[in-house]
Amino acid sequence: SFLRGRLLLLVMWLNLVPQTDSCPAKCVCYSEPRPTVACQQQGLFSIPTEIPVRSQRIFLQSNKLTVVQSTSFSSCHNLTVLWLYSNNISYIDARAFSGLDKLEELDIGDNNNLRIISPTAFQGLTKLHTLHLHRCGLSELPVKVFRGMFSLQYLYLQDNNILTLHDETFLDLANLTYLYLHNNKIKIVTDNMFRGLINLDRLLLHQNRVIYVQPRAFSDLGKLKSLFLFFNNLTVLTGETMDPLVSLQYLRLNGNQWICDCRARTLWDWFKRFKGSSSELECYVPEFLAGKDLKRLKSEDLEGCVETPQIQTSLFSSKGQPGKFPSTESPLGETIPRCCLGDNDKSSILSGKSRQITNNPLKEKENISKTKYKEQERTKNETQHKQNDGPLGTLSNTLGNSLENLNPDLIDNMESSTASNKKKKKCSKKPKSDAHCIKGRASSLEVSNVNNELVPKIVCSLCTQLYRV
Fold this sequence. Notes:
Elements: H1 2-16, E1 28-30, E2 36-38, E3 57-59, E4 67-68, E5 81-83, E6 91-92, E7 105-107, E8 130-132, E9 154-156, E10 178-180, E11 188-189, E12 202-204, E13 212-213, E14 226-228, H2 239-242, E15 250-252, E16 258-259, H3 265-273, E17 277-278, E18 283-285, H4 361-370, H5 380-385, H6 398-404, H7 434-437, E19 447-450, E20 453-456, H8 461-468
Parallel strand pairs: 2-3, 3-5, 4-6, 5-7, 7-8, 8-9, 9-10, 10-12, 11-13, 12-14, 14-15, 15-17, 16-18
Antiparallel strand pairs: 1-2, 19-20
């Protein structure tokens, strides 16, 4: 019995002491709690050879690895955890993970040069439950790249350059619970983008460039509890789009530029039924509702339709965030919302920040003709901060100064879009700001509205020259 006791102590000691045989150079190998090869932060340029075949965990993070070959882990059939994050990996062989049918966690995140993933890179990883692909410089994912990964529960795709996702990319991921897609460049959330994610619990889509969510985009997300869409370029989101989210508890939609008119009514109605927690939805237009929370508006606030000029949006936030860029797409699409059209004249859309459509176009025309034009003097700061929505994008502040010094004789004649072609009015001798002069196409003559008044839009020769450039 004494001998047996000594043998038992010897076996326990061997399990606790790091192994020295068959352990790659610059690595430390352990048997407990599971056979592990730890080679992190060793300045390695290639994956070590002679990795023990019985290894279950391999830690290779924070090195200088550049390539993962098909033979790198071909003998490690017992591998369950593989960490390759924070390297310089730019290429992964399509068969690099083949045969690792016991692998449960794979982390290849924070490899900025890994911009392309093979369509078959993860083929056979049927037991993988966690996959890290964050901060890899990915602009797209191959079709069916996650095919057959039925056990996947956590998928990290944040901090990439993803512009769009193919339909049914996640079709086989019925067990996925967390999907991280924040800080990418996704613009449209399509009907079939999230198809198959019937058990998804958390969807993070914040800090993208989403301008539109298609009506059936959330149709499979009946178990979703958390949805983050803050700091995007959304202006409208319908209640019908949100209806499938019957389990939703946490919703964040702040940092968008919401249009609070009849187009927001279905979302407003949906919030009356929503029992979970939500951020504020600050109205961007109309002006008299700017800054107010859509959820707290009254029904009469959402009547009629306001003009929605192309909105300059910031990359992540509408409040002081850096990196502004002009949105070139119309957030509401090509068609005019039905609630904006009068019953008698479907082609009449009034211009103005808060003017509402009447059902009688003749009466509206009469009211317009009686209106007296008054334009308040714009301050210098207001002019400097004014963003331009023309084809030239955001104009520099020096343009406003050049317009002020423009010779009035150079200003072309102008005419109202509703006036007779034979009658032309002379341009005002006082040059207008760049916001008046450059708007839409320089060749077109439109009618704009300032302070709810109709005034002819100025088309100047300087603007014409700028558009030619």
